C-alpha cells in the first residue's frame, strides 16, 4: 500500500455498475445452473477487471464495486439459518438466536482485494453502517419474534456494536486502513445514531472511516474521518455547511450526481469554491456516485459510468490545480 492514505482527490462513494456477465452468473446460480464456487470465480474475475480499469483511469483507491452477491447481515454466524426454506430475517433470528461474533466472509473478500491491488493504489472496504443494520433488523422482524431473542433493545445494540468492533479489528489485522460506512437510505433514530457513534469510537486506531449518509445523520456523528454528501440534493448550502465547521479536521466529500454532463462542471466548481471558504482544500474530495439503484444497468449505463470517472478527474484538476 506504500504511503497512500485518504483523502484522495477522487474517491469512490458506493457501488459501481454490475456487469452483465456477473448478473447473468447470479441468475444462473439462483436457478441451480452453476455452483457457488463457479459464481465466486466469476465475481473474482469481474472484481479484478474493475480494479484494473480504475487503476488505468488514474483512481488511487479501489473497491470491489459491490460485486459480491451474499447478504452482509447474514454473513455473521448467528444470523445464518439452518433451514433455507424460510429465508426471512425473522426466521433466521428465531432459529439461530443472537447475532454471532465469530467470523464474517467480508474478511476473505478484503484479503482478495488487497492481494490483487496494484502498486500505488489503496483498497477500500464498503460496509453497511451499524445504524443501517439496526434499522433493517427492526424493520424486518415482528416485535414478538425480536423480543424472544432480544428482550431488551440495548442487548441488540450491544451485540451489533461488538460484532462491528470484531469485524473492524479483523479487517485492520488483514491490512485494511480505509473503510466506508453506507447509511444513505437508512432511517434516522436516536438508537441508530448512538450505535454509529459507539462503533466509530471503538474502531482500531489508524483505521480511516468515511461515512456516506443523509445530513441529518452526519451532523449527529462524532469521530468520522470523512463525511460524504450528495452535492446535488440541496443540502450543501451555506447554512448546512456551517454544521460541519466544528469538524475542520474531517474530510468533506461531494458525491457527484450519477451522470453529470460537461455543462454541470461550472456549477460544481462554484459549489466547491463555496465549500473552500469553510474548510481547507486538503480536506476536500470528489466522490464517484453510487450505482446501487440500477438493478439492470445497460451497456450505455456502464459507458456513462466511466465517462463520469473522467469528468471527476477533470473537475479535480480544475479545483486542486489552483
From TrEMBL:
Keywords: Methyltransferase, Transferase
InterPro entries: UROD/MetE-like_sf
Coiled-coil segments on the chain, per record: none
One Gene Ontology term of the molecular function aspect: methyltransferase activity
One record GO biological process: methylation
Keyword presence, Zinc-finger: no
Protein name stated in the entry: 5-methyltetrahydropteroyltriglutamate--homocysteine methyltransferase
